[in-house]
Amino acid sequence: MRGVEYRGLTRIEGPVVITKRSRNVGFNEVVAVYDRDEGRRLGRVVDMSEDWTAIQIFGSNTGLSADDSRVEFLGKPMELRVGPGLLGRIFNGLGEPIDGYGNIFSSTCLDVNGLPINPFARTYPRDFIQTGVSSIDGMNTLIRGQKLPIFSGNGLPHNRLAAQIVRQAKILNTAEGAAEPFVVVFCAMGVKYDVARFFLDDFERSGVLANVVVFLSLADAPSLERLVAPRCALTAAEYLAYERNMHVLVVMTDMTNYCEALREVSSIRGEVPSRKGYPGYLYSDLASLYERAGKISGSSGSITQIPILTMPNDDISHPIPDLSGYITEGQIVLDRELSQKGIYPPVAGLPSLSRLMKDGIGEGMTREDHKDVSSQLFAAYSKVKQVRNLSSIIGEEELSDADKRYLRFGELFEQDFLTQGEFEDRDIGQTLDLGWKVLATLPREDLLRIKKEYIEKYMNPFAANAVLSPASEGWGKGVDGLGGL
């Protein structure tokens, strides 16, 4: 059905055009704008008053003129065509196929703006997701239905880590002894072509491409397309999770580019800026994306989100990571100092956390000692940071024997526990055993966060068969001080 059409524009300001308001125009309604040569470009209604309507164009304003342009209100919100044929397809940021295969065969179209999930319909996330990455599984556990962003910086290997999680992520069903795989929705916003190519090649090599839906809004695409791309991706994820009952892992990169596009639109519209020029509604806008993850009662499917954002100047207090941290249930923070040491993945031990971890680990889910081992590793590594700061002031030679033991523990923790290969998939048992191995270098009286029966059951074999680690000379000396172990 053809919508209402008007001729002429009142004003053109970059990607936003102003026209006289028409009757029955809705917010976020799709608009087609035609230039004098009948060139068609899509847009959407972003603001209205009694006298005018502001339209955001997804593309260039080249060729538009105030007198000769036409505006057609299509009378519907932006929609994405969904169906079983979504998997294995590649779309642009507006949900249009760019892989040469045309539209999918389906008559079902969904509003990309989505609807808020009724909190009463949500079920609490509790299922452990094994990523095969020790620094995540052991200390910052990912739970099905959680949103756990990666806070990174320019030049850090966040894309490699995200690709590794996509390859290896699985839900362990301990009752049946089977692992349930994910389907993946990957959304790239404003990234360079080589980054998009890296992910596509990795999906193809690992054999998961047939279970991936890709939305690409590259750096050379209109910047405002980045505002629609994550909403299209999440709409596809909601269809696969709640209509097809699949476990969906949504990876979105880079959320910083999304926020920059939001700031651009806000500035053009003349809105009063907030912190660092971002609009005051940045928090609610990010929440409208992040809160579309979760589990709903009555559906066996779920949406788990891993947004990736690069912190400007590695500043974790910048508005984008700051507000994201408030909305999401934790964060994985990548550390530049660890990366410069050659450690992969360079997951920072202390700033990283998973707020839902406590509900997805333990007996029957991972292993009975998981919570105690994780807590003790955090406490010991925190002590390592204090000792290293002291050492930088007075010198390592002036440290006490106990402090030197913590320095050795820190080296072993970083080289044996944190460091692993990009294609190395460790199960949760291997991760926890590595945790016990590095904790065996500390005296028993320092292990205040672990139950005695767990020490007897899990750590004694490592203490009795202590082997010198190539990463930490004198490892055996730490064992001598175990107090009878």
Automatic annotation (TrEMBL):
Coiled-coil positions: none
GO MF annotations, alphabetized: ATP binding; hydrolase activity; proton-transporting ATP synthase activity, rotational mechanism
A Pfam family matched in the record: ATP-synt_ab
Every ATPase F1/V1/A1 complex alpha/beta subunit nucleotide-binding domain range: 132-354
Source taxon at top rank: Bacteria
Entries under InterPro entries matching the protein: ATP-synt_VA_C (IPR055190), ATPase_F1/V1/A1_a/bsu_N (IPR004100), ATPase_F1/V1/A1_a/bsu_nucl-bd (IPR000194), P-loop_NTPase (IPR027417), V-ATPase_su_B/beta (IPR022879)
Residue ranges constituting the ATPase F1/V1/A1 complex alpha/beta subunit N-terminal domain according to the UniProt record: 10-75
Record key words, sorted: ATP synthesis, Hydrogen ion transport, Hydrolase, Ion transport, Transport
GO biological process: proton motive force-driven plasma membrane ATP synthesis
Annotated SUPFAM superfamilies: C-terminal domain of alpha and beta subunits of F1 ATP synthase, P-loop containing nucleoside triphosphate hydrolases
UniProt record similarity statement: Belongs to the ATPase alpha/beta chains family.
Role noted for this protein: Produces ATP from ADP in the presence of a proton gradient across the membrane. The V-type beta chain is a regulatory subunit.
Full protein name: V-type ATP synthase beta chain
Taxonomy of the source species: Bacteria, Pseudomonadati, Spirochaetota, Spirochaetia, Spirochaetales
